[in-house]
Specification:
The complex is a heterodimer of chains A (114) and B (115). Helices cover 0% and strands 54% of the residues of chain A. Chain A has 114 residues and is mostly beta strands. The termini of chain A are far apart. By secondary structure, chain B is mainly beta. Chain B is built from no helices and twelve strands. In chain B, a hairpin with a 6-residue loop joins strand 5 (32-39) and strand 6 (46-52). The chains are: A mainly beta (114), B mainly beta (115). The interface between A and B is medium-sized, with 26 and 28 residues.
Chain lengths: 114, 115
């Protein structure tokens, strides 16, 4: 049981548009993570939110941003979409900030940029 | 910078047999965590097993076990009695014990279990 709900499952956007992806962890899990899985590039860490604050950020341009809400759900926003943003975006949860706690993933949002 | 290397892009095994997937990593840290995740065709990333670097005992989870060699920076996954449902991409991942909570991933090994 992943305990992470992501939406939408699939979407297609045009280059230059903006997209918002959503993630809801099960109750009581305060940390939310975003990863990008692009073909041939493996998984890349995007963002970590905990208790409503951004705790860490990967090497992505500022047009990748997000936020975490008081109920610990999260949004990932990508502005000015580029073709190479096409990827599976995975959201994950853990129960707290304790290092090494297992991270559980949702089923992802497939983004295609045309 | 930490890196994770999986040297076997593809592997196959017969059902009921045993297979070992390799993973090496590079870090200057002494305390860290290692994970194996599987990603079946559904794309759901599923935790297989977790190892804490300060523990010498190798982690096991049912048919899955690891061979953790800290000095060699090696973390291989052994799957015993392979089942068709084990067919998936397997990713090795590293997280240091600091508080950045960032998983660093290998590029994966595609495992096919043949009937």
């Amino acid at each position: 049981e992943a305990g992470v709900t992501q939406s939408p499952t699939h979407l297609i956007k045009t280059r230059g548009q903006q997209v918002t992806l959503r993630c809801s962890p099960i109750s009581g899990h305060t940390s939310v993570y975003w990863y990008q899985q692009a073909l041939g590039l493996g998984l890349q860490f995007l963002l970590w939110y905990d208790e409503g604050e951004e705790r860490n950020r990967g090497n992505f341009p500022p047009r990748f941003s997000g936020r975490q809400f008081p109920n610990y759900s999260s949004e990932l926003n990508v502005n000015a979409l580029e073709l190479e943003d096409s990827a599976l975006y995975l959201c994950a949860r853990s129960s707290d900030r304790v290092p090494g706690n297992t991270i559980y993933f949702g089923e992802g949002s497939w983004l295609t940029v045309v | 910078a930490q890196t994770v290397t999986q040297s076997q892009p593809e592997m196959s095994v017969q059902e009921a047999e045993t297979v070992t997937l390799s993973c090496t990593y590079d870090t200057s840290e002494n305390n860290y965590y290692l994970f194996w995740y599987k990603q079946p065709p559904s794309r759901q990333m599923i935790l297989v097993i977790r190892q804490e670097a300060y523990k010498q005992q190798n982690a096991t989870e049912n048919r899955f076990s690891v061979n953790f060699q800290k000095a060699a920076k090696s973390f291989s996954l052994k799957i015993s009695d392979s089942q068709l449902g084990d067919t998936a991409m397997y990713f090795c991942a590293f997280m240091n014990a600091g508080n950045n909570r960032k998983l660093i991933w290998g590029l994966g090994t595609s495992l096919a279990v043949n009937p």
